[in-house]
Amino acid sequence: MKVNITQKLIIYFVLILFISLILTSFISNYMIDEKFDTYLKNEHHKKVEKIESIIQSAFSQNSLYPDFDKEGLGKYVALEGYFVEIKDINNHLIYTSNRMNSKGFGHMMGFGGMKKNFRNLQSNYVEESYPLSINNKSIGTMTIGYFGPSNLSMEALVFKKALYHSILLSSIISMAISFFIIFGVSKQLALPIKEITSVAKKISTGSLSIKSDVHTNIEELIDLSYSIQDLSATLKAQDALRKRLISDISHEIRTPINNIQNTIEAFIDGIYEPTHDRLNESHEEIIRLTNLVKNLENVIHLDKGNYVLNKTYFDLNDEIKKIIHTLIPQFHKKHIKLIYESSVHLEVNMDKDKFKQILYNLLINGYKYSKENSIVHVISKIKENCLVITIEDFGIGIPPKDLPHIFEYLYREDTSRTKSTGGSGIGLSITKSLVESHGGKIEAFSEINKGSLFKITFPLKNISKNM
Ligand code: ADP
């Protein structure tokens, strides 16, 4: 059976309350019966002893015609709600409070009225006989009658019943008050949960901009609300990334494919001669496509350590020179000088392909974001037990607001300055994770319109056998 949180809480609270009230009334009833009855029984015995002593002293003065203040005794027993009857050894009636005490309690209420009143209090009329003796010699019997289950007087029974009533009443009142408090508390809990649920439902249907504005001071619910908010922000960011990736990639792929298609169609139609230069251009477009696919493959390995490294030993300078050499024709197109300086002669233990990709990505960026007739400067050196490679250009630079984000996946400074370069914002994030997978780090320093410097630092202990 499905129940909502309010119903569930009310059921449990009422159950707990009910059990505790039953327990309280049982315990308090028991205590009242136990203590109060003991007190009253003691009182009763004292009174019986008092009556007994009056009678016995009268008998000790005159055992045949005992004389005592019958009117006084009558008043006393009537006041205490007793019936007293005294008989001598021959069972002759000497005294009865009922008959002899005309002004007593029995008379005032009428003994029948007294009985009725006690009966209302659910009590029985009880008579107890006590042997009367002087010096171990039996002189007669005294019968004391009273109403009540535990030798209680009517006042005591009334008091006890009032006590029970007050416990019952206070239980009912506290149950009613608790019910309202519980109802309020459960509403306080249920409302924000309902709000959070409705926000989560809206998020699941795609409303990612919705704000989880929950009004509560319950810490866990505030946390839950923030978590839902974070979830929606993450989903929103991922959604934006996904859309951007699809649009960027399709744009990236469309341009070289169109160029190749147009060129080949022109060859077929005889508009263009398939000259060496034109074939070379198409070849470059195909290389661009291949690189893009390679980058896409790498996206799934973006987390550090996710790469499978195929480490080999190679000469650092030789490899950097080779990379530079292959890029010189491209740089030449924009008349950019690619300079390499090194004071290092080092065999490194790295994944050669990944090292190439690191350098290639940074050099291509240097090329893309440099003006014509500029310089891209590569330096490698050893500093503080680290291999440090810097790639510096004197191009457009990176605005300070973008600098902290350029290594983020798919981050691309979205201004007209960079739109023309048609980047996808994948390169640097891949570069960073490739560097980190070799135990290194990458930093960027840049000044707008002055240029950028990318610094890669590999601790020698991670990349060299000599250390
Ligand atoms: P993209 O394919 O867009 O170049 P990257 O991840 O390589 O992607 O670079 C992310 C962003 O960082 C670029 O869009 C660009 O704004 C900025 N950037 C990277 N390298 C440079 C550089 N050398 N000079 C200026 N801006 C750069």
Task: Describe this structure as you would to a colleague.
The chain is of the alpha+beta class. The chain has 13 helices and 11 strands. The chain has helices spanning 5-61, 70-80, 97-100, 105-109, 111-120, 154-204, 219-269, 276-299, 316-333, 352-368, 416-419, 427-437, 460-463; strands at 83-88, 93-96, 125-134, 137-147, 311-315, 337-342, 347-351, 375-383, 386-393, 441-447, 451-459. The strands form 3 sheets. Strands 6-8-9-11-10 form a 5-stranded mixed beta sheet. Helix 1 runs antiparallel to helix 6 (154-204), helix 7 packs antiparallel against helix 8 and helix 9 (316-333) packs parallel to helix 10. The longest helix has 57 residues, at 5-61. The radius of gyration is 52 Å and the shape is rod-shaped. It starts with a helix and ends with a helix. Bound molecules: adenosine-5'-diphosphate. The site of adenosine-5'-diphosphate has 21 residues, from helix 10 and helix 12.
